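Our consortium's second objective concerns turning raw sequence data into structural hypotheses that experimental partners can test. To show how far this objective has progressed, the report includes one record in full. It was chosen at random from the queue rather than selected for favorable results. The single chain below, 550 residues long, was entered without modification.
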Amino acid sequence: VARTIRQIENTKEMVRLVGLSATLPNFEDIAAFLRVDPVKGLYFFDKSFRPVPLQQQYIGITEKKAFKRIHLMNEICYNKVLNQAGRNQVLIFTHSRADTVKTAKVIRDMAIENDTISNFLFDDVSKEILRDAVDSIKNPDLKEVIAYGFAFHHAGLVRSDRALVEELFADKHIQVLVSTATLAWGVNLPCHTVIIKGTQMYSPEHGRWVELSPLDILQMLGRAGRFGLDSEGEGIILTTHNELQYYLSLLNQQLPIESQLIKKLPDMLNAEIVLGNVSSLSEATTWLGYTFLYVRMMRNPDLYGINQYDRESDQTLIKRRSDLVHTAAAILDKNNLIKYDRKSGMFQVSAIGKVASYYYVTYRSMNVFNEYLKPSMTEIEIFRLFSMSDEFQGMHVREEEKIELSKLLSRVPIPVKEGADEPSAKVNVLLQAYISRLKLEGFALAADMIFIQQSACRLMRALFEVSLRRGWASLSAKMLTVCKMVDRRMWLSQSPLRQFNALPDVILRKLEKNSDLNWLQYYDLRAQDFGEMVKIPKMGKTLHKFVHMF
């Protein structure tokens, strides 16, 4: 945004910026950041504009033991759902995919046990529609619960199942829907009652369970109340007793959103330098004046370490901004991402800095790559270097994960030198597990693997670019091979045909065992030859077709 506003002022080519938020407390600051006219361009809609009033309930759980606490939460959810059974739809938010399935099954089982299951189907038409829907559903767990008027929704479901659940809930055939928070942000499915089951979610970035932000809570509660059907909506929050007061105070008097730019300033500054928008200390100081950080420093100087004397003597905070830029530039210079001439204040981009900017790699990771990247590295060392990236510094090994990690260490193809209790070993083994398509048991471990996978392609590409720019041909070839393995989720020793999901695993294993032929020789084989090779004649034509698709 800061870059765009500067561009508008310099080129006089107008770009229209529109900001929209349902949950932002300090909207005036965002308006100032976007250069919005507060009279003509700023609109604020408070609770009085809400078409359906919202009644909120906060329930604090005092139970300390995890198993008993979960059981108590399930009982409360069941009782709250039962109060609306047959009358209104209920949406329950949980914070993991596995928990959506468990919660839906537990509430259904409680209803069967207490002989109240008939209350959860609106009428005979809904029963018939739900029975028919079972045949078209692919997920076996969803098949189990949907006929009873229950369903769950998360990003792990295939698209057809998600679309069907959304349609059935919108048409009021499903009484109780259990979902992850993605539904609150992505799909508009209002209902009478929203239950937030627990206020902690696992953050792979921090490597631990963290409290939900007030914005997430408000977004979920925003689904309660149907315009034209309800006189009021109902929002119920289940949390630990310790956090009860925290959510009460936050939702009744929200804290302003603060800028997080200082933490990422070196990386942001490097991106501006690479783009050519900033070439000196003075230009960078001006650029910082267009950011949300500057708006918040002016509004709340104490929080950003600006005393009253500095504020009075430097009303536009030029010195403070210049100090921040100087510190960030010095860090980049020290890590070889830019060359910073302290006398003239000029910046010059380096090849390493360009790679960091193109692939969104932090300066700390680039420093590690610079230090440990050598021209004669093996695959073992490449994977070890990847696991040392700054992006995974928040990764921790929990006690309950050590057994599963030890098993994975013995299953992955590339040896890991570190033990199962080392965070770098965890990153290494989870990346290999992702490439090998291994299934994980623990939810937190699976979430960590997704987090690692999201960064794997760009980090490996960055390593490839660095080795290429240094002229290390052998290492560049190895890096490019690793990039392709991560991207396609298959090892170099495996058949390229694994890229086609239509082929059964047993067929692929037979082809891989037949190592007498290299890949180029496959083009000379007839369909009949392929059938004989895998000892299944009818698969010959299919294999021949897939081979010639390359």
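The partners drew two points from this record. The chain has a mean pLDDT of 87. The first strand starts at residue 54 and ends at 61. Both points have been shared with the crystallography group to help prioritize constructs.
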